[in-house]
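Homework help board

Subject: predicted structure for assignment chain

Our instructor gave us this sequence and asked us to write out the predicted structure in C-alpha cell form, then describe one feature. I got the C-alpha cells but I'm not sure how to describe them. Can anyone check?
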Amino acid sequence: MLDFLTLQTTTSNPSLISIIYTVLLSFLLSSLIALTYEKTYRGLSYSRNYVQAIILVSIVAGMVMQAMGDNPLRGLGMLGALSMIRFRTVFKDPRDIVFMFASVAAGIACGVFGYGMAIIGTLGFCGATVALYYSNFGQNRNYDGMLRFNIESNANMHKNLENIMKNYCKQFALISLREMAQGSRLDYAYHVKMKNRFPKEGFVEEIKKLNTIKDVNLLLQETTVEL
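My C-alpha cell output:
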C-alpha cells in the first residue's frame, strides 16, 4: 500500500501515482469549494459555468505546478505560454474572485505535494464561509434604503411628512432637494433607517395619504440584488 507521507516531497519528475493523487485531490477539494459556493450563494446571477470553472481551474493549477517542478526554466517557459491567454470575464462580486482564488490555491498546493496544507486550508476556507453565511457579520449599516417623492411646496405639508418619518424611521437624512414645476413642487430624496416593528408597506401607505404627494418610491438595500 502506498504511504501517503511519501508523496510530501517535491520531485522534478513526479511519478505516475503522484500525478494521479494530485489530479484526484485537486478535483475533490475544488468540488468542495464549488459546493460551498453553491450553498452559500445569494443573488440572481448564479452561473453553472462559473461553478464548473471553480473545479476545473484547480486541476489546471495542479498540472501547471507539477509540469514546472523544481526547474526554474520550466517555470519561465510556462509563464510565457500562459501570458498569451487573455481572460475577459468580469467579476461583479469580489466574493466570486475569492472562491476562484481559493480553488487555484488548492490546486497549487496539490501540485507541489502539499497535500496536508491543501486539505486543511480548503476545510478551513469552507468552514469560515459557512460560518459567515449564517452569521450577521457585515450586515450593520446606517440606513436601510432611500425614499423619494415630490410634494407641493408647503410648510405645513412638510411638517406632517416629517412627523410620519419620525414615527416610522429610526433616523433619516435629506440627501437631495430640487424644485419642480417652476418652484410650486419640491422633489425630495431621503436616506432612511426603518424601525423594525413597523412594516415597510404601512410606511409607504401612510405617506401616500398626504395631499399633493406624488411618485413615492422606497428603495431598500436588503431587497436589491446586483444582476
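Reply (TA_rk): Your C-alpha cells look well-formed. For the description, you could write something like this. DSSP finds seven helices and four strands in the chain. That's the kind of observation they're looking for.
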